[in-house]
Amino acid sequence: MKEESAICYTCINENCFIKKHLHLEQMRQFVLKKKSFVCKKSEQFITEGAPLQGLYFICSGKVKTVKTGINGREQIVRLTKNGDTIGFRGFGTSKRYLIGAYALEDSVLCNFSNETMLEILQTVPEFTYALMLFYADELNKSENNIRKIAHMNVRERVIDLLLYIHRKFGQVNGLIDIELSRKEIADFAGTTEEQAIRILSSLKKETLIKTVGKRIGILAIPELRTEIMEHKYF
DNA sequence: TCATTAACTGTCG
DNA sequence: CGACAGTTAATGA
Question: pTM of whole model > 0.85?
Answer without folding.
Answer: yes
